[in-house]
């Protein structure tokens, strides 16, 4: 995994690229020679020789389709899609309105599916592609207070495994990386006692780093990973 030019010439798409894991993934793949297209609601449009960033709301199906078409017009190839955009929702089930569930499913599952579907149409033309979706350890740990988040990501996991089956004949793999809590700004709103209880349930009782998540994503994104599909890799020893 030390090959810093392992993605030279490849086109990599990353959603939720404005901060945290997403921003780290953009930098990670650019350093490895890829042309990277990142999108997020808060990204200011910019473009250089190493890639393109665009302001896109991933829950807007038409906007996602236009972004992917924009990449295709620029590159005429898409090698990797990383669906990183998502958001946690913390509330007791008895206090969770249906609107929170709908919002979580829209962002954490439906948006990722829409991007995967549109990208797969392009990847099929080349007979090659790598789709990596970000899930969470909240699914296997069944974390209290995260019903909407865990349920929407569980749906994404199931959808990804079906996609892996349907897209395999086209040379496209579909896998999932489930980070344990990562040291990013998003953790600032999590009460310390809640975070400590969560970490206590992990074999590795510490925060993961963005670099560790990027390493796991790269594992599935590499050309050599052709036999890996329909798999979920959780971090932290889960």
What is the mean pLDDT?
94
Helix content: 40-55%
DSSP strand tally: 8
Provide the gyration radius in Å.
17 Å
Helical/strand content category: alpha/beta
Strand order of the largest sheet: 3-4-2-1-5-6-7-8
Question: Total helix count?
Answer: 7
Amino- and carboxy-terminal Cα gap: 22 Å
Largest sheet: 8 strands, mixed
In terms of DSSP E residues, the strand content is 15-25%
Low-confidence stretches: none
Spell out the helices and strands N to C.
EHEEEHEHEHHEHHE
Sum up the overall morphology in one term: globular
Describe what this molecule looks like in 3D.
43% of the residues lie in helices and 16% in strands. The protein is an alpha/beta fold and 238 residues long. Strands 3-4-2-1-5-6-7-8 form an eight-stranded mixed β-sheet, sandwiched between helices. A hairpin with a 2-residue loop joins strand 3 and strand 4. Helix 1 packs across helix 7, helix 2 runs parallel beside helix 3 and helix 3 runs parallel beside helix 5. The mean pLDDT is 94.
